Amino acid sequence: MAHLRTTPPGLSGIELYRTLPKLRRDTLRGFSELTARFGHVVRFKGLWTTFILTHPQDIEHVLHTNAGNYRKGRSYRVMRESTGNGLFVSEGEFWRRQRRLAQPAFHRGRIAGFARTMAHATAEMLAKWDLRFTRGEAFDVFSEMSALTLRIVGRTLFSTELAGETDAISRMLAVGQDFTIRRMWQTFKLPLGWPLPAHRRFRSAMQEGDRIIYEMINERRLGATEGQPDDLLQMLMGARDEATGEGMSDRQLRDEAFTIMVAGHETTALTLAWTWYLLAHHPHIERKLHAETASVLKGRAPTFEDLPDLKYASMVIQETLRMYPPAWALGRTSIEADEVGGYHVPAKSEMLLFTYTTHHHADFWESPDEFIPERFAPEQVAARQRYAYFPFGGGPRMCIGNNFALMEAQLVLAMIAQKYRLRLVDEHTVEPDPTVTLRPRTRIVTTLERV
């Protein structure tokens, strides 16, 4: 291949290793500054070659156009230690088989049936919020959204209540995220079997999560659950490969259920928490949202059929996902040599696709740091570059649960907004913390105000 410039600018050697501690301390700003300094393709040359990509055309090339030449990157191999070999991290023919088996469970027509479950769980939470309002109690909105989405994923995935397991699941998530992000930054990783305190804490937390999931799978296998629940677990257990007629083993079910439970619970809770934070800072947008919910719903609970009419609620959610994408970066590894952005990419190179940086780049967004839901009006979406916005990834490996997550977030937002405003107790700026997901670095403490 002929190239005008075969190697993109970037960091290597001593300069790279001097920069790494800063990138770890302030990851989002650090990588955004590198893009501003070097351009949309930045090269790191250390123990292996890494390319940082932020241009929509390059992201589309890796995720969609030439997706067959890229597999999940090094960071996903670390995640596999907790998630197992579920759809999020699996590769090759095994991934294709699991995707075929799981896809029908996430068909839009199937997940539409879960809207009533989502609304019912939200109504239960709002009944408790009525008491909070009467007492004037303050609360952490991320914790509340986490409890709600965990309740929803428990009922839709397992047809069971996970409220009693909230502490164990929260511990599993907290320990798992902290351990995973530390492992991602380690150049040399000691085997998990080594009896280190961090390893023991991680194994203990994961074993507790496994206990919860395997107990529910075993109960279903033994027929302990009355009837045949129409939930995601039953769909996954009943799925059969068209070519072989085989279903999933218990281990495969565990890995997929774990992935869905963690991803479906955590990412939607984060999106909703950041949404309330943004709305509290933008009362004119909040008023438009309340006006829409009042006009469309007229005091009743939203249904799946209401979603097309809750247009502004959808735009608010999408703009939150632009500003605070839970999956703030994606990683891929090139299989064969390629050309990206006019540069030569050797085989086995690491490709880091920075969702957060692309979503906040002035080349692709006007006033990128402002909260403007109207960006997602149909005419603006049509005029935008396709991969300037990719909160759920893209191409054949786009998140299988994206429609489920968007439906849940839109329903919950509309249902709460028709009854309450959330007011921040402390007006300080809450910084995003880029661990495995983009969490608030400090609590978002709010009180309730009647609409």
How is the secondary structure organized here?
Blueprint: E1 10-12, H1 13-25, H2 27-38, E2 41-45, E3 49-53, H3 56-65, E4 70-72, H4 74-83, H5 92-102, H6 108-111, H7 115-135, E5 139-140, H8 141-158, H9 166-185, H10 197-221, H11 232-238, H12 250-281, H13 283-297, H14 311-323, E6 330-334, E7 338-340, E8 343-345, E9 350-353, H15 355-359, H16 378-383, H17 402-417, E10 420-424, E11 432-434, E12 438-440, E13 445-450
> How would you spell out the order of helices and strands?
EHHEEHEHHHHEHHHHHHHEEEEHHHEEEE
Domain tally: 1
CATH class: Mainly Alpha
Low-confidence stretches: none
Q: Note the main sheet.
A: 6 strands, mixed
Mean pLDDT over all positions: 89
Topology, number of strands: 13
Gyration radius from CA atoms, angstroms: 22 Å
User: Can you identify the CATH superfamily?
Assistant: Cytochrome P450
Give the helix level as a range of percent: 40-55%
Distance between the termini: 63 Å
The DSSP helix count reads: 17
Strand content: 5-15%
